[in-house]
């Protein structure tokens, strides 16, 4: 489903949940803070590296399918979605997992396929309104 080892030289090759767009991600352990770097065309987004384990833990606590609810930073996230959790003051990051102001959203679009590729979650792959759950 994906290729790459998650380094800058060999990033994970991913597709959005509906399978309509390609993007890459890699782990930047040396960043301050350590980050997941997401390259979507010419746009670079960055998220706390801890988002992988934190999201997986949260999904396990939910115990069932959770809607993704992907939204840009400027739009409100629908409560109860992966996107809303990725911005919540109640998550382990204490707020936004996104690190680059103006590009902090879309957590619910770009993180879920990575967790699926890593084998810790599964996603629906419909044209819209996708969900995920922990494995």
Question: Summed up, what is this model?
Answer:
The protein is of the alpha+beta class. The protein has helices spanning 51-62, 82-85, 107-117, and strands spanning 12-15, 22-28, 35-40, 43-48, 66-67, 121-123, 131-134.
Describe the structure.
It is a single chain. The strands form 2 sheets. Strands 1-2-3-4 form a 4-stranded antiparallel β-sheet, covered by helices on one side. A 3-stranded antiparallel β-sheet has the order 5-7-6. It has 3 helices and 7 strands. A hairpin with a 7-residue loop joins strand 6 (121-123) and strand 7 (131-134). It has 135 residues and is of the alpha+beta class. The mean pLDDT is 96. It is globular and about 35 Å long.
Topology:
Blueprint lengths: L11 E4 L6 E7 L6 E6 L2 E6 L2 H12 L3 E2 L14 H4 L21 H11 L3 E3 L7 E4 L1
Antiparallel strand pairs: 1-2, 2-3, 3-4, 5-7, 6-7
What quaternary form is this?
A: single chain
How far is the first residue's CA from the last residue's CA? 16 Å
**What's the story with the biggest beta sheet?**
4 strands, antiparallel
**CA-atom Rg in angstroms:** 13 Å
Shape category: globular
**Rounded mean pLDDT score:** 96
Report low-confidence residues grouped into runs of 5 or more.
none
Number of strands: 7
What is the share of helical residues? 10-25%
Major sheet strand order: 1-2-3-4
The number of distinct helices, counting runs of at least 4 residues, comes to 3
Class computed from helices, strands and strand pairing: alpha+beta
Q: Give the percentage of residues in beta strands.
A: 15-25%
Task: Summarize the helix and strand pattern as letters.
Answer: EEEEHEHHEE
């Amino acid at each position: 489903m994906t290729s790459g080892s998650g380094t800058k030289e060999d990033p994970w090759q991913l597709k959005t949940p509906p399978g309509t767009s390609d993007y890459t991600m890699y782990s930047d352990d040396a960043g301050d803070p350590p980050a997941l770097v997401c390259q979507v065309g010419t746009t670079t987004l960055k998220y706390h590296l801890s988002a992988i384990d934190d999201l997986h833990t949260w999904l396990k606590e939910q115990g069932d399918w959770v809607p993704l609810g992907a939204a840009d930073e400027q739009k409100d996230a629908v409560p109860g979605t992966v996107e809303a959790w990725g911005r919540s003051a109640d998550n382990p990051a204490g707020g936004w997992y996104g690190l680059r102001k103006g590009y902090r959203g879309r957590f619910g679009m770009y993180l879920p396929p990575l967790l699926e590729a890593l084998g810790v979650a599964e996603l629906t792959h419909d044209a819209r309104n996708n969900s995920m759950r922990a494995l």
